[in-house]
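During the reporting period the student researcher (J.K.) took over the structure-prediction task from the postdoctoral fellow and processed the backlog of single-chain submissions. One of the processed entries is reproduced below for the supervisory committee.
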Amino acid sequence: MTEQEILNALRSVVREEVASQIQPINQHLERIDARLDSMETRLDRVETRLDSMETRLDRVEARLDSMDERLAAVEEDTKITRGAANSLIAWADQVAVITQVHFPVKRAE
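J.K. obtained the following structure tokens:
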């Protein structure tokens, strides 16, 4: 056997050995890749759901802002109404002094 034949035989043996040792590593990497693809798909679905929730929360926040504005108007109207009612009670008290007829109302703050 010549030196070249021996080198070729050694190359062949080394290639086969390296290939046999690399094959399980490649299989393991393929399984990891498949698992990562599955995780990426699930993360995409979670991201889609989170985007949907964010949209809904934005709508809820807009509704709450609107409710705050309307509640502030109601509070202001209540103060005006209470002031007017207290004025009427004061007037009724003055009339009661004159007519001697007392109205069963109380002044509120």
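The committee noted the following: The chain has a mean pLDDT of 90.
J.K. will present the remaining backlog at the next meeting.
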